[in-house]
Amino acid sequence: MAGGLRVVLVGTQHPGNIGSAARAMKTMGLHQLVLVAPERFPDPDAWALAAGAVDVLDAARIVPTLADAVADCQLVLATTARRRSVPMPEFDPRTAAGQLRGEVEAGAAAALVFGRERTGLENEELQLCHGAIRIPANPDYSSLNLAAAVQILAYEWRLSGLAAASGGGPGSEPATALPADDPGAAPDPDDRPASHAELEGFFGHLAALLEQIDFHKGKAPDMVTQRLRRLFLRARPDPRELRILRGILSDTQRQLRSPTGQ
Ligand code: SAH
To answer: CA neighbours within 13 Å on the CB side: how many for 150?
Structure first.
C-alpha cells in the first residue's frame, strides 16, 4: 500500500460492521481497508452488508497487529468514544480530516484507526497513534456504532477534499494543530515525517538505553514511556533527525561499555 488514507478496524467482533464500514468508506471515496485480527472474517454477513462495496472487502488486507497495519504511515489517528488515561493530542473530526488531507496530498500514507465494538482500543494501541479523534456526541451516551463512526469520519474526509478542490471553505484552511510540511521544500527523501516503523525503532533503542542507565530505578517504566512517546510523536521528527537521536543513543551506549571514553 503506497500513499493515501487507509481505514484500520482493530479486532472487529461483528462481520456485519466490517461490511457496513466498507460501504460507508466507498460512498465517501475511500477504498483502503485494513483489518487487524478480525474475530470473524471472511464471513457472509460482511458481504451482505457491504452491498455495492464488496470490492473494498475483496481488497481488504488482514494483519495480526495494529503496528503491522500502520508501519509505513506518517500520520496515525485513533478514534475513541471516551477520554483515556493515555495522554495524547485530541482532535474533532473536522480538524482531523483537514490534517489527514494535508498529509495525503503531500504524498504520505495516513491511517484512521477504529476500535472494537465492546471495548474500543487498548492503551497500548492508542500509544501507537499520533492523536485521538472524538466525535462530540451526547456525553451521556457517546458510543456510536462502529460503522456509524466510520461514516462520520469518512464524510469529514470527503468534505475536506471538496473544500480543497473548490479552493475555499473551512476544510481548506491549513491545519495548524500539528506542524505542516513546507510545501515549497525541494524534494528530498528525508523531507517527510518519519514512518511509524522508524519511530518504533527509535523508541525501542531509547527504552534499551534507559534500561542500561537504570533510569527507572526499579519503578514501572509505563508513565515515563508514555510521556516520552507523546513528546516525540508530537514533534514528528524526520528520518534525519531520528538518525541524530539514535546516533546520540549509540554513542552513549558505547561510552557505557568503555567508561574512560578513550
Ligand atoms: N465501549 C467502547 C466503544 C467502542 S465503539 C469504548 O468506550 O471505547 C467502537 C468504535 O467506534 C470505537 O473504538 C471508536 O473507534 C468508534 N467510536 C464510537 N463512538 C465514537 C465517538 N464518539 N468518537 C470517536 N469514535 C467513536
So the answer is: 33
User: What domains appear along the chain, each with residue ranges and CATH number?
Assistant: 4-165 (3.40.1280.10), 196-257 (1.10.8.590)
Protein residue closest via CA to atom 18 of ligand 1? 144
| Beta strands 109-114; 75-79: pairing state | parallel
Q: Which residue in 107, 24, 22 sits closest to 59, CA to CA?
A: 22
| pLDDT tens string 81-123 | 987 777 889 999 999 999 999 999 999 999 999 999 999 999 9
Q: How many CB atoms lie within 10 A of CB 138?
A: 8
Q: Ligand 1 pocket, 13 CB below 6 A?
A: no
Judge contact between 130 and 230, C-beta under 8 A.
Answer: no
pTM for this prediction: 0.82
67 Cβ below 6 A of ligand 1:
no
Cα separation, 225 vs 189, whole angstroms: 29
Take atom 5 of ligand 1 and give the residue whose Cα is closest: 117
Q: How far is the CA of 234 from the centre of ligand 1 (A)?
A: 23
Ligand 1 pocket residue status of 150, Cβ below 6 Å: no
